[in-house]
Amino acid sequence: MSLLRRCSLLMAAALVAHPAPARAQAGGAEGPDATRVVGRGCPPERALNGEVRLVFIGDSGYGGGVSEWGTSGQSAIASRLNHLELPPDLVFFVGDNVYWTGSSQLYKTRFDDIYEPLIRECKAHVALGNHDVKGCRPADALEHWETCLGELRAATVADRKARYMRQGMEEAKAAEKAQAETAAEMPAELKAEARATFQSNCFPGDATAYQEKAGDTCNSKAALEHAQFGFGSVEKGEPPANERQRYYSVLWPLPKLTKAGAPKEGGPAPPETRPLVDVIVLDSNTLRVDGGVLEEPDGQQRREDRLQLLWLRNAMARWLPAPGETHRIWKILALHHPPYTPLACACSLFGKCIGGHPDEPGLQEQFREALEGLEPPDMMFTGHNHIYARTPALDASGAPATGDARGVRYFVTGGGGAPLYAVRGEDGRFAKVLSIYHFVYLRLTSSSAFFWALDSAGRVRDSGCFDKGSNVDYPLSPDFHYADALPPRCGPDRPAGGTR
Question: Is 275 in contact with 329 (CB distance < 8 Å)?
Fold first, then answer.
């Protein structure tokens, strides 16, 4: 497809609020049964061989063949993901899960059917992307005199309650435990900041943060109610939207509990189950990003989602020790908009970059403020630009981390299926930049992280490893397959492969 043709299709699609559903995809017919529930049977959570395996993928929801404005690579990437030799424990979709407007009528064919093996085993969890909330505007600013403390407590309780229900606790016991722990453990300085934040800047953590634009359909509530997307406690039923948070955390693995909250007993004693990683999924649409829902027609953003940032600070202030180690478990942020990204373009028209995205300096500033004085996350996975990109460890200013200061590694993994973008120019901040369909496969032990960017043919396009707390990356041997046995630690004497 020519660049001019792609630009024409892109601009036409952008002007259409509700494009007609594309032709029926290979996964099944689109229509009244689009919200069919896929049966879920969740296996016990356990770190197999002392490790956790995660996949991160973004900008996927185009279906098969030709969609709104170009060809799609979703089917090939999904097939590769669904048939990995060493299956992942969890898969995180970092937004734009259903193009063009996040229509609930396309959930079945562009997500449920395509990722059915992952959904069936409770592995899929999503973040909301800009295309998932295309018809939405922010909720009206009401009750200016009230503060954000009540909403912060509610969002924290909802996240913890969902975790305990995933472990097997019945709802009332889970809610009681979550409320007691939140009341006892929330830092005083965070409570004070929440009291100082008026509710006009305190958007609810659930779907009521969004309202429909005039003449449009807002699908945020449908997305949060859709069990296959993995918001909140996802094993059974269709709880109301106010029990599904648009941002949430997944602490993994966790031991199974009885309905009353006691450890399960009986039968052979299973290996001790202790968390290795905490994945924090955010909704960047209401943060300070270009084209975000809080951006007003003049380009200014006069309101702010302070609640989400307070919730993030609370989540980042809570660390657990890693099993068998003196350091803490891994923390990973997953969201749609990238704070740092190479400049990419969907197409070029008369020398002008159309459809791609630059850095989000407003988001960088919000993260610096929210994480000030705290240990930073180990990694951040984003999408939005339909490319693959990876930085070395960067400090809070975006420069390479040096000395004892802990850095954050940023991954852009937007090659899940939507038409790819071209990368414009060189960007020295990034160790690798590729315009490919792909996903990132991550294996974590208590001490080391190993990663592979795999394309639709299963080829390794980028790989490496690093130790927890270290700013040094090491490349992996081309012969070291993602399913090979891992060494005790990452380092210069990494394995040459062939140890499956």
Answer: yes
Identify the DSSP state of 112. I
**Token digits of residue 33:** 């049964």
| 106-123: burial string, b at 16+ Cβ within 10 Å, e else | bbbbbbbbbbbebbebbb
- Rg of the chain, C-alpha, whole Å: 22
Q: Measuring CA to CA, which residue among 379, 407, 376 is closest to residue 393?
A: 407
Q: 333: buried, middle or exposed (CB in 10 Å: 19+, 13-18, 0-12)?
A: buried
The secondary structure of 408-457, three-state, reads: EEEEEECCCCCCCCEECCCCCCCCEEECCCEEEEEEECCCEEEEEEEECC
Element (H, E) at 109: none
CA dihedral 245, 251, 254, 256 (to 10 degrees): 0
Instruction: Tell me what pLDDT residue 254 has.
Output: 83
What are the φ and ψ backbone dihedral angles of 381, each rounded to 5 degrees?
-110, 130
The neighbour count for residue 241, using CB atoms within 10 Å, is 20
Is the CB of residue 27 less than 8 Å from the CB of residue 109?
yes
Summarised one tens digit per residue, pLDDT across range 388-421 is 999 999 999 999 999 888 999 999 999 999 999 9
Residue 219 backbone phi and psi in degrees, to 5: -100, 15
Q: Are strands 409-413 and 438-444 parallel, antiparallel or unpaired?
A: unpaired
CA distance 148 to 170: 29
The conformation of residue 405, written as its DSSP 8-state character, comes to -
Half-sphere exposure of 47 (CA within 13 A, CB side): 20
Place of tokens 């429909």: 212
Domains in the chain and their CATH numbers? Answer: 3-467 (3.60.21.10)
Question: Under a CB-based contact definition with an 8 Å cutoff, are residues 148 and 141 in contact?
Answer: no
DSSP for residue 15: H
Whether residue 285 contacts residue 130, with contact meaning beta carbons closer than 8 Å, is answered with: yes
**111-139, pLDDT tens digit by residue?**
999 999 999 988 999 999 999 999 999 98
To 10 degrees, what angle do helices 149-166 and 306-316 make?
Answer: 50
Per-residue CA distances from 363 to 284, 300, 425 (Å): 8, 14, 23
- The residue to which tokens 């905490």 are assigned: 278
Degrees (nearest 5) of the Cα angle 111, 116, 219?
A: 30
Average pLDDT estimate for 472-478: 94
User: Coil, helix or strand for 180?
Assistant: helix
Identify whether the C-beta of residue 308 lies closer than 8 Å to the C-beta of residue 299: no
SS3 286: helix
| Cα separation, 412 vs 418, whole angstroms | 14
d(CA 290, CA 28): 35
